[in-house]
# Entry
Amino acid sequence: MLCGARTDASICCTTECERACVQSGRPSWWVYLYGYLTLGWFGATVVGASAGEDKESGKDRIFPLPLRVCGACQKRLTSPTEVKAALNLVPLYRQLLNKYPDAKVSSPLAP
Ligand SMILES: [Zn+2]
# Structure
């Protein structure tokens, strides 16, 4: 892939595009306070009743991306930056990395 050598060797680059982040649907204490101050206990009750479910925004998007790299080139892929550059050579992975520019690429592991 990198040097053009024919190889059956491949590595697996775990790419973390996005982590799920769970947001609490419950209002903050100051929202209760505000409700209480403006409408009394009724206000606080309304705020409490409007509390939603915990929302999960986003999902864990972690992809093990197989990359065909010969043994010599594998040794060159020592830093995440180099791995990312190698992944960018694959059109499909390039699309993914363009979509998630902050994706974290971990050092390659032999499958
Ligand atoms: Zn090579």
Notes: Strands lie at 10-18, 21-23, 55-57, 61-68, 104-105.
